[in-house]
């Protein structure tokens, strides 16, 4: 299995702080699963122009190939104008419609206030559903007040991140076992 942690913002520190914390715990808890962080802040991603994702090069090809090869994807997104950032939407636009088929996706949303709690539900989940992802039902919502000096200070948030890790890996493994059992029924 392969896991990708996608920090979907080109600005700010809350999302990357959350994703880095999640990745660190993931590597400790699941050392046999290959894991990598993709931070859009450090990458030069082309704007989607309708080409096949394999026709791009450099950072754009790297990101799209890593997402297509992953079994588990954690997506971290800040809330901008009551939605996801354009940089994250652009990554989705670079990929084929069924890019997340047979992939399990966990979500982490950051926002300045609790008023934006449903952005993950109303903005991000429909895109992932359209792209055929197996979405972990509960996501982690993190407010600005939960992170100080690039450190998660709220133990409840850390507990929810731990639960998201477990739920995502268990769901991914369960799907993998079901698909394998189904495929084993056929002789070819």
Number of E-type strands: 8
Terminus-to-terminus distance: 23 Å
Beta content: 15-25%
Structural class: alpha/beta
CATH architecture: 3-Layer(aba) Sandwich
Q: Return the CATH class.
A: Alpha Beta
**Might you state the CATH topology name?**
Rossmann fold
Rg (C-alpha, Å): 16 Å
What is the overall silhouette? Answer: globular
What is the succession of H and E elements? Answer: EHEHEHEHEEEEH
Report low-confidence residues grouped into runs of 5 or more.
none
Mean pLDDT: 96
Q: What's the number of structural domains?
A: 1
The oligomeric state is: single chain
CATH-wise, what's the superfamily?
Answer: Flavodoxin domain
Number of helices: 5
Bin the helical content. Answer: 40-55%
InterPro entries: Flavoprotein-like_sf (IPR029039), FMN_Rdtase-like_dom (IPR005025), NAD(P)H-dep_FMN_reductase (IPR051814)
GO molecular function, one term: oxidoreductase activity
Keywords: Flavoprotein, FMN, Oxidoreductase
Protein name: NAD(P)H-dependent oxidoreductase
Summarize the structure.
This protein has 188 residues and is α/β, with parallel strands linked by helices. The chain has helices at residues 14-29, 58-69, 86-94, 119-130, 155-184, and strands at 2-7, 34-39, 72-78, 104-111, 134-135, 140-143, 147-148, 151-152. Strands 1, 2, 3, 4, 5 and 6 form a 6-stranded parallel beta sheet that branches.
Plain-language structure description:
This protein is 42% helix and 20% strand. The protein has 188 residues and is an alpha/beta fold. It has a single domain (2-184), classed as Rossmann fold (3-Layer(aba) Sandwich), CATH 3.40.50. Strands 1, 2, 3, 4, 5 and 6 form a 6-stranded parallel beta sheet that branches. A two-stranded antiparallel ribbon has the order 7-8. β7 and β8 (151-152) form a beta hairpin. The protein starts with a strand and ends with a helix.
């Amino acid at each position: 299995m392969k896991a990708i942690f996608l920090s979907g913002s080109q600005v700010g520190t809350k999302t990357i702080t959350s994703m880095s914390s999640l990745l660190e715990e993931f590597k400790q808890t699941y050392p046999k699963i290959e894991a990598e962080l993709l931070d859009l802040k450090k990458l030069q991603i082309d704007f989607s122009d309708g080409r096949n994702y394999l026709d791009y090069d450099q950072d754009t090809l790297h990101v799209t190939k890593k997402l297509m090869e992953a079994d588990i994807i954690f997506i971290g997104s800040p809330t901008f104008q009551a939605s996801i950032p354009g940089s994250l939407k652009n990554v989705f636009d670079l990929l084929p419609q069924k890019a997340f088929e047979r992939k399990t996706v966990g979500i982490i949303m950051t926002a300045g206030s609790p008023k934006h709690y449903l952005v993950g539900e109303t903005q991000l989940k429909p895109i992932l559903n359209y792209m055929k992802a197996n979405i972990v039902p509960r996501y982690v919502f993190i407010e600005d007040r939960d992170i100080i000096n690039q450190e998660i200070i709220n133990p409840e948030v850390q507990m929810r991140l731990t639960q998201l890790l477990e739920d995502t890996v268990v769901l991914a493994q369960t799907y993998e076992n079901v698909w394998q059992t189904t495929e084993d029924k056929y002789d070819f």
